[in-house]
Amino acid sequence: MRVAVIDIGSNSIRLLVAHYNSEKDVENVVPFYRELITTRLGRGVAINNIIDELSCKNTVMAVKAFISRAHDFGCDIILSIATSAVREALNGPDFLQLLKKKTGLDVNIISGQEEAELSFLGARAGLRIAGLTLVMDIGGNSTELSLGDDSQVIRSISVPVGAVRLTQRYYKSGIPTDAEFEKAKNTIRKEFYDFGLFFAKLSSSRRVEIIGVGGTLTTLAAIKLGIWDYDPEIIHGLYLSSSDIEDIY
After folding, report:
1. Contact 42, 165 (CB under 8 A)
2. pLDDT at site 171
3. What does each C-alpha distance from 126 to 39, 70, 119, 134 come to in angstroms?
4. What span, in angstroms and rounded, lies between the C-alpha atoms of 43 and 22?
5. How far is CA 37 from CA 104, 126, 239, in A?
6. Burial category of 76 from C-beta neighbours within 10 Å (exposed 0-12, middle 13-18, buried 19 and up)
7. Are 240 and 227 in contact (CB under 8 A)?
8. What would the pLDDT profile of 127-138 be if each residue is shown by its tens digit?
9. Is 46 helix (H, G, I), strand (E, B) or coil?
10. What φ, ψ does residue 136 adopt, rounded to 5°?
11. Secondary structure percentages of the chain, helix, strand, coil, to 5
12. Which of 17, 105, 128, 199 has the fewest Cβ atoms within 10 angstroms?
């Protein structure tokens, strides 16, 4: 069976097409096509909780293109989820109604908790990592952290901190000033403070594997490698040390 999944994120819309051979065994999900279109759906949401007209139009066009691509691949099922921008926007229901009218697609809005847990399951399965793991998914309007092991998710959070949200809220003039940068950092510290204390205590006695998911992390990897065009075959599974990130920062 071929399945297509369309992820309607706050910054980008993603398509994944895969062979799906079992209802229970995630290792039998074999991806063979990926595509990404940046529409910045969360741009207006970060300012006034409204999906703006241009972002809405671009997202509908992207979803139409992905549905066409899925049909070209002969997909038996097309699934779609929406995350932070749509679940927070005051006109989120109107956007989904328009999307349904234009494309016929039913979209499932997932909660921040579901988003965190799905990122955890997908990242661990994709890299086949066992043991205590922290999965960090930095999105456009939110960031999800999930800490768990082979048997369960121990703790997970979804916080309103993301690349688009911080840019729209604090960086008013392109390159951020020192004052704008400090305001953004203070927001980040506040949102992650409690989870940080919990993680520091747990990781002091146990080794933790950290997996990064999303455009921010893949961009850091691309900067490290000195490449301009995103290539998942090169980026996927790349190791980033703390010194790598500090050098870029």
Report:
1. yes
2. 87
3. 26, 22, 10, 14
4. 38
5. 20, 22, 25
6. exposed
7. no
8. 888 889 999 999
9. helix
10. -120, 115
11. 45, 25, 30
12. 128
Q: Retrieve residue 70's tokens.
A: 């899925």
- As given in the structure block, the two tokens for residue 49 are 């909780």
The answer on pLDDT for 229 being more than 90 is no
DSSP 99-161: HHHHH----EEPPHHHHHHHHHHHHHHHHT--SSEEEEEE-SS-EEEEEE-SS-EEEEEEES-
CB 63 within 8 A of CB 6: yes
Instruction: Delineate the domains of the chain, giving CATH numbers in brackets.
Output: 2-109 (3.30.420.40), 112-213 (3.30.420.150)
Express each pLDDT in 161-209 by its tens digit: 998 889 888 887 778 889 999 999 999 999 999 999 999 998 988 899 9
Tokens of 204: 């002091």
3-state secondary structure 144-160: EEEEECCCCEEEEEEEC
Mean pLDDT of 143-165: 91
Q: Do residues 3 and 16 lie in contact, with contact meaning Cβ atoms separated by under 8 Å?
A: no
**Using alpha carbons only, what angle is made at residue 58 by residues 144 and 184, rounded to the nearest 5 degrees?**
40
Residue 214 near residue 137 (C-beta atoms within 8 A): yes
pLDDT band at 249 (very low <50, low <70, confident <90, very high): confident
Sequence-distant (≥ 6) Cβ neighbours of residue 50 within 8 angstroms: 44, 89, 90, 91
Q: How many residues does the chain have?
A: 249
pLDDT at 73 over 70: yes
